[in-house]
Design brief:
The chain is α/β, with parallel strands linked by helices. Strands 3-2-1-4-5-6 form a six-stranded parallel β-sheet. It is globular, with a radius of gyration of 15 Å. The chain has helices spanning about 20, 30-45, 105-115, 125-140, 155-170, 175-185; strands spanning about 10-15, 50-55, 90-95, 115-125, 140-150, 170-175. It starts with 9 loop residues before the first strand and ends with a helix. The chain has a single domain (about 10-60, about 75-185), classed as Isochorismatase-like (Rossmann fold, 3-Layer(aba) Sandwich). The longest helix is centred in the first third of the chain and has 17 residues, at about 30-45. The protein has six helices and six strands; from the N terminus they run E-H-H-E-E-H-E-H-E-H-E-H. Strand 5, helix 5 and strand 6 form a beta-alpha-beta unit.
Amino acid sequence: MALTALDAKTALIVIDLQRGIVALPVVHPASEIVQRSVAVLDAFRRHGLPVVLVNVAAGAPGRTDQGTRTGDFPAGFTELVPELNPQPSDHLVTKRTWGAFTNTDLEAYLRKEGVTQVVLVGIATSIGVESTARYASELGLNVTLVVDAMTDMNADAHTNSITRIFPRLGETGTTQEVLALLDSTRA
C-alpha cells in the first residue's frame, strides 16, 4: 500500500546502521542507505518526533547454518555509524535477535511515548527490518517502510520483502515521500 499518512505520534526506528553491518556486501550502496536514513532521521528530530536507534550484538539462540548466535563480533562491529549522530533524546536499543522488539524495552518505550505508528529504515531488509515490522504490525501499530532507505545482502530477499511482505504489513514509500509528508503535516 502506498504511503498515505503519518500519525501525530510516529516514531522512526533505524535498524542496524552500525559499522559491522554497513561494511557487509549489500545489494545497494550502504553509503546511500545511510544518507537517506539520516535525511529521515534529521526530519524526525527537527519535528520533535521519537527516534529509536537499534544495533545488533548477537544472534538468536539456537542452531543455524550461519553460526551468528554467538555474538563474537570483531571490535567496533556494534558501534552505530557516526552519521547517525546519536542525541540524548534518542532511544537506544541493542537487540540479540533479528527483531528489535524481542527481549528489549522497545514496546514499553513506544507505549510510554504514545506512539501509534513506526517508520522503518536500515539493513537488512529481509532480516532486521522485516522482523521488526512484523512485530510492530502484530502490536497494532501502523507501519511505514521507507523502501529506498534499506537494503539487504541478497537481492531476491530484498525484493521479496518489498514486493510481497511489506504491502501486507503496512505502507511503503520513498525517502522523499516521507520527508514531504512530514513537512506538509507538521508545518
